[in-house]
Amino acid sequence: MFEHRRIIRDILEHYGFDISYYIAMEILHIDDAKIWLVKKEYHRLYNSGEYSYKQVKVFLSTRYSISISSIEKMIYDNH
């Protein structure tokens, strides 16, 4: 549950969308929101120029409790 709140909060803080209603109404699944967030954060952090690809992947892996290989699949998946 804590992870869900973190995803909702991070999307609100960084992108200005409050998705809590859509999650509660089961219009949006938290896993889909997480994938969207990881993709956006990956590009935002890397494009800031402050972090390497590896540093971004490690940060996201720790923050959202997912493996680095899962992050790579999210980033490079074209679907």
Structural class: mainly alpha
Which geometry do the CA atoms define? globular
Unreliable stretches: none
The main β sheet shows up as:
none
Q: Secondary-structure element order, as H and E?
A: HHHHH
Q: How large is the share of residues in beta strands?
A: under 5%
Distance between the termini: 27 Å
Mean pLDDT: 94
Percent helix, as a range, is over 70%
Helix tally equals 5
Concise synopsis of the structure shown:
With about 80 residues, the chain is mainly alpha-helical. The protein is about 75% helix and about 0% strand.
Blueprint (SSEs and pairs):
Elements: H1 2-15, H2 20-24, H3 30-47, H4 53-64, H5 68-76
Can you tell me about this structure?
The structure is a single chain. The mean pLDDT is 94. The chain has one domain (2-76). 15% of the residues are buried. It has helices spanning 2-15, 20-24, 30-47, 53-64, 68-76. The chain is globular. Helix 1 packs across helix 3 (30-47) and helix 3 runs antiparallel to helix 4 (53-64). The protein has 79 residues and is mainly α. It is built from 5 helices and no strands.
